[in-house]
Amino acid sequence: MKKSLILPLLLGLSLSACAMQSGDFPSLAKRPIESEPVMTAPSAAPIDPLRALPAPLQDAVNAAVRQSNSAHETFLTQLSKVRKSVSAARGAAPSSESWVAAQVDLSSLEVDRSPSVSALADIDSLYMQRLDAEFTGEQKGAAVLIAKFREKIEAQVAAQQTTLDQLKSQLR
């Protein structure tokens, strides 16, 4: 029972020590600036991507998108042939005729996708140039617009790579 009486006494003494400090402490009352209404910047109107980029830059972005789309269509067209070839070679010994044919078809599919990879490199370069121009203050905005086009190309390249990796894993 003594322990239960001592604990509240010690707790009370330790808290009272904190309350006994003296000094000039700041008030917790609301400051005048905290009562003023908050001003927000007007929201910018959405930028039309065809009007936001200078014509030469827009042309370069469009060329990269067209190049990637074309390569992606070719990739998808050839994919069924390659899948059949890989399926026929599944479990075959390396250097067998079906295995070599599947490897050749996979290589051809990689060549078909190379313009997409090149387009991604091109748009990466355009994006970085635009970011640099915005950072140095030479030009304002539009890097976000290039990034949206870049994301589309990057998604195509990533999907192609995933497909190729899956097909290659079936031949091991």
Secondary structure elements and pairings:
Layout: H1 2-19, H2 32-35, H3 49-52, H4 55-89, H5 97-136, H6 143-170
Helix pairs in contact: 4-5, 4-6, 5-6
Approximately what portion of the residues adopt beta-strand conformation? under 5%
Please compute the radius of gyration using only Cα atoms.
32 Å
- Largest beta-sheet characterization: none
> What oligomeric state do the depicted chains represent?
single chain
C-alpha end-to-end distance: 76 Å
Order of helices and strands: HHHHHH
Kindly state the number of beta strands. 0
User: Portion of residues in helices?
Assistant: over 70%
Give the averaged pLDDT, no decimals: 82
Q: Helix count?
A: 6
User: What low-confidence regions span 5 or more consecutive residues with pLDDT below 50?
Assistant: 38-50
Structural class by sheet pairing and helices: mainly alpha
Question: What is the molecular shape?
Answer: flat
Describe this structure in words.
The protein has 172 residues and is mostly helical. Helix 5 packs antiparallel against helix 6. The longest helix has 40 residues.
In short:
By secondary structure, this protein is an all-alpha fold.
Record keyword descriptors for this entry:
75% helix, 172 residues, 6 helices, mainly alpha
